[in-house]
Amino acid sequence: MAGVLTLSPTAAPFPWAAAAIATYTGKATLNFDTAATGVSLELDGSTVTAEDEIVQTLAKAGGLSDDSAKTSAYFALAKTLPTVTAFPEITAALDSLDDHLAYRTFLVGHDITAADWIVWGALKGSVKIVGLLKNNKHPHLLRWFSHIESLESTQLAIAGLAEAKSAKARSNKTAASFALGLHNAKEGEVVTRFPPEPSGYLHIGHAKAAMLNQYFAKMYKGKMIIRFDDTNPTKERTEFEETILEDLELLEIRGDRVTHTSDYFDELYDYALKMIKTGKAYADDTPQEQMRHERMEGIASKHRDDSVEDNLKHFEEMTKGTEEGIRWCLRAKMSVDNPNKAMRDPVIYRTNLLPHHRTGSKWKVYPTYDFACPIVDSHEGVTHALRTNEYRDRNPQYQWMIEALQLRPVHIWDFSRLNFIYTLLSKRKLHWFVNTGIVHGWDDPRFPTVRGIRRRGLTVEALRQFMLAQGPSQAVVSLEWDSLWTLNKKIIDPIAPRFWALSKSNIVPVTVKGGPAEPEVKTLPKHKKNPEVGEKKTVYSSQIFIEQEDAISFDDQEEITLMDWGNAIVRSKTVNESGIITAIEMDLHLEGDFRKTKKKITWLSQPTGPYTLVDVTLLDHDYLITKKKLEENDDVKDFVTPVSEFRDEAYADANVKDLKKGDIIQFERKGYYIFDGIVDGRYEFIHIPDGRAASIASKAVAQTGTATHAEGGKKESKKAVTAPSASAIDTPVETKMYKMKKVYGEDEVETPVETKMYKMKNVY
């Protein structure tokens, strides 16, 4: 009799080893309980609560051979790994494991044992370690880690956790039981399909569908088909097929084969004839508006009971594309008044005289998606059709087609469509932004397209983890971006090299007394906590630059810390009539204690001779619209963010010259950036949100000015520098409450506090 492993889906770190070995041995089912305070196993009348003991108990119950003396050492390693924070220690442990696995499949012996599960679980539970493994510096360890993760049982445990997280509102009794699986799925036989229409670029909503299809195909060691649904010559073009395949490549998604609905036009036409001959379809020339009204009211078409001969005759006219034929369409004879309006005699074939991008002028009639999809799914061997739940009303229609044509059945698996606040997914509305020049193209980092979000620095791993965390949730909600960007930060932070950049605006030259007479170059790690990221060269001199914002914050005779150098004492400041600091003198004070200074600042040596600085542009972006969710009758033009691109001209250290387009870095004290390439000699970097409120909040409330168009393909935009009035940051709300004066009046309320923090300007 199988035991029960109870664990909380929100546990941190999550007990991966216990969950994975439970599904591998089949000796315990997973019971996800948000109220659980730890992990516990009930098996054969006894209860075990320590994860290492649970792993050993399940290994023994599952017959996993594990009699090596080395096993205890691996259990000890698994216990210490989560507590290690220093990168050199983590790296040393990974190096040791990598060396050990160079000529071994498993840690102990020739089969998987408890040692493999306990160590894998410890690695899986550490975001830092998973990030380091992605560096490919430990190929043998990564091969072993990936193998264990790819096992069907492990995938079921991962999927079960994803479902449990997305099912917080459900009863714990019904949660998960490691079953984010597909109904009636058999290993090696599952076939999924991703069917985009070749009429535009993929966006983040499509990404979820594509990733889930690939995920299930891999989980069950099956296949995934990429099928272009090319049934509408009006909207489709060959170049969109190429861009969609490129978008999928950006998501690391590759199908086992690529097909087209147009490959089956002959078969689909024959099925349409069959439906007419069996009395399950009829031709109709009812005008579109009248047809819509009749369907809504449950009124039968005047042609619903026409003879088979008449229907065949009209369908023949449609096929020829004659003047008479283009008036007609073909409808499935399902129902007149079914409560589900999708079942009320839907159109399954219509005439279109435009040439098709693959079949040319061969056809004048084309099937609708709802007719073609179930037929082609069945023909191509698809076992599970994944559809967003906006199609749920049409699922009975899908099954009706299968039954009416006596086709092999296909299982339907629903999932919720992905929506984000302040985000448009409508192709029509996105086209408007491109056509008006408000954005620079379909890969604009403000766009929710796959190209846009990847260009803004979102990693595939973060996207994949986020999509799977949504699991089979059916809730249709507008998600915040913060959790996705926070996940992304956890992945990039351990491996992003650190550099410095200073805004050119009123940059301040500083003379450092006691600094080197001639510039000196020292080699420093690009990432202090992760030496494997590499080294950079830092120039030290007596003439440096600092930012105006830092200079203004200095008090006279204050001791500050120059990062990666040491302490210095501010001796004098030169200020012009506008209050702008134009020069500073400091005394180097290397014996000072950096722990006692309030301000640690970045700086750059002034360029001289061979030691140059690099001209860079730091780009930041806002949401394109000012309303969290546009309603159906909202005009997008009324909700365009006035300025949604901000450009800051800056200097960066010369190390950035070694970057390749797409490299992700951190400019210390500024944030994470992705290198976007060189434009007119300037290195352009796009800011990557990190999930914190300030980085993802709409900036629209603090702006003035109008949207800037990118004329002639050049990137232009205004930097919003005008400080808004207090009223500018009021959040307008619709309310029936009458207006009350503020208790403290309209003046700013000073709250005196004793603090060692230096004063910062209000972010608004």
Explain what you see:
Strand 23 (566-575) and strand 24 (581-588) form a beta hairpin. This protein is of the alpha/beta class. The protein is built from 21 helices and 31 strands. It has a 7-stranded mixed sheet. It has a 7-stranded mixed sheet with strand order 25-22-23-24-18-21-26. A 4-stranded mixed sheet has the order 2-1-3-4. The model is unreliable at 168-179 and 702-733 (pLDDT under 50). Among the domains are: 3-171, Up-down Bundle (Glutathione S-transferase Yfyf (Class Pi), Chain A, domain 2), CATH 1.20.1050; 191-255 and 418-488, 3-Layer(aba) Sandwich (Rossmann fold), CATH 3.40.50.620; 260-372, Glutamyl-tRNA Synthetase, domain 3 (Alpha-Beta Complex), CATH 3.90.800; 498-611, Ribosomal Protein L25, Chain P (Beta Barrel), CATH 2.40.240.10.
Task: Give the secondary structure arrangement, pairings included.
Layout: E1 3-7, H1 16-25, E2 28-32, E3 40-43, E4 46-48, H2 51-61, H3 71-80, H4 87-100, H5 114-124, H6 127-133, H7 139-150, H8 152-166, E5 191-194, H9 204-219, E6 223-228, H10 238-250, E7 257-260, H11 265-277, E8 281-284, H12 288-297, H13 308-320, E9 329-332, E10 347-351, E11 365-367, H14 369-379, E12 384-388, H15 395-404, E13 411-415, E14 419-420, H16 427-436, H17 450-455, H18 460-470, E15 478-479, H19 482-492, E16 498-499, E17 501-503, E18 508-513, E19 520-525, E20 535-540, E21 543-546, H20 548-553, E22 559-562, E23 566-575, E24 581-588, E25 600-601, E26 604-605, E27 614-621, E28 645-652, E29 664-667, E30 671-679, E31 682-688, H21 693-696
Parallel strand pairs: 1-2, 5-6, 6-7, 12-13, 14-15, 16-29, 18-24, 22-25, 27-31
Antiparallel strand pairs: 1-3, 3-4, 8-9, 9-10, 10-11, 17-28, 18-21, 19-20, 21-26, 22-23, 23-24, 27-28, 29-30, 30-31
